[in-house]
Amino acid sequence: MIITDLDNLSRQLAMNQKFAHAIEFLRREGWRGHPDGTIEIDGKNVYGLLQSYETKIPQSTVPFEGHRKYIDLQFVIEGKETIYWTPTHCLTPTIPYDAAKDIWFSHAPRGDATEIVLSSGKLAVFFPEDAHATRQAAGQPMPVKKVIVKVAV
User: pLDDT tens, 91-132?
Assistant: First the structure.
């Protein structure tokens, strides 16, 4: 997992062509006017998911997700949210892995996880070893606009 801003990302992330496409996409910023949904970057190798939602007050247990085929670069455009992180090996999936959607789910106590707060302009990189619970309020619920760039492993 990496927590950073866009200016420092290329120095902190081992560069390969897929990550270079992802960073170039984020810096280009022409995608900001797009409606929510999928944005093609480099076919199935790299693509973006633009999302808008209201964060919610975290409960004592939170819904974690994990992926096997993609790395998530989660970049907050507007607003602020808390994301909880824990290693995937600490969780047992409650909803098994769906290969077509590259996702599995589990619930775990948020007190056992690391709390990360991302505000506008900040991002987190989650690898397949990183389970994450997103869309959690950092204080009071608020609207968040975010782009998740999916990079194939």
Answer: 999 999 999 999 999 999 999 999 999 999 999 999 999 999
pTM, to two decimals: 0.92
Nearest to 150 by CA among 25, 6, 2: 25
CATH architecture assignment, domain 2-152: Sandwich (2.60)
Cβ atoms of 62 and 107 within 8 Å: the answer is yes
The domain segmentation of the chain, as residue ranges, is: 2-152
C-alpha 10/C-alpha 8 separation (Å) is 6
Burial of 84 per CB tally in 10 Å (0-12, 13-18, 19+): buried
Among the listed residues 75, 18, 21, the one whose alpha carbon sits nearest the alpha carbon of residue 50 = 75
CA distance 26 to 38: 14
The enclosing H or E element of 150 equals strand 143-152
Take residue 54 and report the two structure tokens written for it: 């209201």
